Amino acid sequence: MQFRSVSTHVIACLFFLASTSANAAERWVIEFKDSSAQTQLPVSAESADVREARLLEKLAVLSTTHKKKLSLVRPFGERAAVVNTTPGADPEQFRLRLLSDPMVRSVAVDRRVKLHAQSPLVGLLNALDLTRQNRSWFHQDVSVQAASINTGAMWANFHGSAPTVVAVLDTGVLPSHPMLQGHLLPGYDFVADPLIGADGQSTGGNSRDADPTDPGDGVTPTDLAADSACSGVSRSSWHGTFVSGLLAGNPIPAEGVFSVNWNASVLPVRVLGKCGGFSTDLADGIRWAAGLSVPGVPSNPFPAKVINLSLGAEGVCVAPIEGAAIAAARQAGSLVIVAAGNDGGTVDSPANCPGAFGVAAIDQEGLKANYSNFGSSIQLVAPGGDAAFPIWSASNTGLNAPLTNTYNTKIGTSFSAPMVAAAASLYWSLNPAASVSDVENALRFTARPFISMNNRPVCNVSAPGVECNCTTSLCGAGMLDVANLVNSVASGGLTNLFSNTGNVIPPGQSRSFSAIGSTNSMGQEVSAMSFDLINVIKSSSAVANPVLSVAGLQADITAPTGVLGFDLRAQTSNGRAAVASVVVQNQGATSPTLLASLLSPLINGAAAGVGGPALQFGDSVVGGSDSDGSSGNLGGTGGTVGTGGGGSLSLFGLLFLMILLKYNVRSTAPIRDIAQW
């Protein structure tokens, strides 16, 4: 009886879905030309009411001229509007008719970028691995795993310098997850449609706000009936948390889960909700993440150097929407890294947009994964996992709303992209003056050559959906190699800065920070370093400053009660510097900059000993890899490892967080999450 009742309900929902989809409104982005009589003021100089009135007037004229009601959803960009209209017999004919109007500059469909995910039984071998070693297969030595990104050897002596801001445009994040503690900057929720946002924070029909928390994107039969873009019932993906944890999460050695750059800061930007999201929300999120203005939204105080998009929609790039946003972000100094898609064929948008850095997926053998899209717009490949060897990262047990934080598996190009994004952030931390082109060229130049297996076909556009040997014409420059990338900056010298015991100091206590592994412009390891404390924040001017004691490459700092935090700066004689943000509080949490030398043997299965990191490693800062896959050697194993949150969120980020939380600004085909899980 219960099964019959459920079946009846589902059938009713399907009939309702079919009837509503036939009557669903078409959604467009119409960009207007500037009239000669119009004062060309920047958007920031117009009030919201004036701008809306101007657009309503133009839409009224278009509606009368073309005999079709155009309803304003919201303003978009400088001179455009997102509009709804009732569906017609031929949408393309209507678009061309609008485009011929002398008032109109461009007309584009506001596509839905939809969730693109499956739930195969992945990771059975990993799940049965009680040592958890295989969970981090893509970090292992290249002699063990052909598709490795070559991070394991690097961590023995280096794990980044000044934190780089990386924006993750996705489903939002779960701020309570242990992997994300100490990494999250104050982000924003750009999902405007309350039906898609589903977070109960809508005001006046606009769901945008300053809270990028992921409420869950699970789809119920009720959701299917309400939104014709939903493709089926599904559980929540927690995709944004997964991507963020993989990119810049705290290491969780007990779970065998490690990020690529655990010294990066994540700027969470929510652009996806139930059944995806609109491309105009994505475009606004890209602009905001890059530090550009978006009408009705507070300015972003933490512009991202790297923007990760693990999402997409089938088809070519829509130039006036995501194409223009990517171009603007690039002009502002942000590298936009985009997953290629999981259809096994041509590259999705916006990975095929000019200026985007498209990333395809390889499996554990180093071959193009059968699900990965590929083509001439791909710049690089990185591991995306397969059924036997998936990707592990942060997740949650909740089917719809969040419940218990956990760790789980997924596969897809969604996870190749953040590996490249994290690598780019490592490079920028060592060379902050690098341009977008500099970083792109470094990623391509340091990539390892593709693997070629005799019993596999060569990738060919006429044979989609197969595991195949990559070529530079269809898979980019090669396979991501983080060690090679970091070594490429060594010629200019670098400065390490990490603490064995964390970047959170209880009041009145001390911490030691090590700069072991810093090199000069000749690639020689330095024996001394200058340290100073900057940006000290205190509860009152009467509170004493932190006490700094320096001996060679070690800085010991005592934080008196009343000191809230500070930045520790280490600098070599040639000017290279690193900055660690330290928080003073009673929290027992440890920094994401943990003693890295323990982690490499953990990942590679060696016995962990006790001692300090290796001090000498020739001219390279990490273990180099040759084109034949052989790896250089790094000595040294580490001591104890803490767990929990950290301090890579800057002190000023904490202050801005308190400020931005006071804002509650609430103001389109689906965006697909490029993942299989």
UniProtKB/TrEMBL annotation:
The UniProt record lists the keyword Signal: yes
Stretches that traverse the bilayer: 641-661
Record carries keyword Protease: yes
Sequence ranges assigned to domain Peptidase S8/S53 in this UniProt record: 164-447
PROSITE patterns xref list: SUBTILASE (PS51892), SUBTILASE_ASP (PS00136), SUBTILASE_HIS (PS00137), SUBTILASE_SER (PS00138)
CDD domains linked: Peptidases_S8_13
Coiled coil, from the record: none
Region (Disordered): 200-221
Signal peptide: 1-24
InterPro entries referenced in this protein's UniProt entry, alphabetically: Peptidase_S8/S53_dom, Peptidase_S8/S53_dom_sf, Peptidase_S8_Asp-AS, Peptidase_S8_His-AS, Peptidase_S8_Ser-AS, Peptidase_S8_subtilisin-like, Peptidase_S8_subtilisin-rel, Peptidases_S8_13
Active site feature: 170, 239, 414
Keywords: Hydrolase, Membrane, Protease, Serine protease, Signal, Transmembrane, Transmembrane helix
Homology family: Belongs to the peptidase S8 family.
Name of the protein this chain belongs to: S8 family peptidase
Organism: Limnobacter parvus
